[in-house]
Design a protein that fits this description.
This protein has 3 helices and 8 strands; from the N terminus they run αββαβαβββββ. With about 160 residues, the chain is of the alpha+beta class. α2 links the parallel β2 (about 40-45) and β3 (about 75-80). It is elongated and about 75 Å long.
């Protein structure tokens, strides 16, 4: 046995989630907290009206004040959910009712549309599609309401459009 024994204690994810929750007001919510090898802590948050840099700094400072670097060396990153990142929590769907998103389901073509309704099982997307009608040579635009179930694990992202 080696005369030198190094003990490595990893910061617990649940503890970091608790610390983040202490700083978040009702309008903010946690998207993800991960603690990776080497105590690399990543915190992703969102808010009903977005997240400011000041809020990310506030969360970061709170965590750094509570954790003792003498006991647990760690690397910390706190950031907001990016526009191009897929939705990960239910509240993101609620936040984006009325917004244009792109939805991908395995084995199907992506669909763009506006989230119209969200419930615990899934969401409804209103999408404009070009469809060829019987007896006509040109395609016409139709509006369809498409139901996506969370069990099907759709990948949903905000759709950025420039007008």
């Amino acid at each position: 046995m080696s005369p030198i024994l190094l003990t490595f204690q990893m910061v617990q994810q649940e503890y970091i989630e608790k610390l983040v929750s202490e700083v978040l007001a009702e309008e903010y919510f946690i998207i993800d907290v991960s603690v990776k090898k080497g105590n690399v802590i990543e915190v992703v948050v969102d808010g009903d009206n977005g997240v400011t840099i000041q809020k990310c700094v506030e969360i970061s400072r709170h965590i750094e004040e509570v954790l003792d670097r003498e006991t647990e060396d760690f690397e910390l990153s706190v950031f907001s959910a990016g526009l191009g990142n897929p939705f990960r929590v239910y509240r993101q769907y609620l936040k984006n009712i009325g917004e244009t998103v792109e939805v991908k389901v395995t084995g199907e073509n992506p669909v763009k549309g506006v989230i119209k309704n969200v419930d615990e099982n899934g969401f409804d997307l209103e999408s404009k599609m070009m469809v060829k009608q019987e007896g006509k040579s040109k395609k016409v635009e139709v509006v369809k309401l498409i139901r996506f179930n969370f069990n099907d694990q759709p990948e949903v992202r905000n759709s950025i459009t420039f007008k």
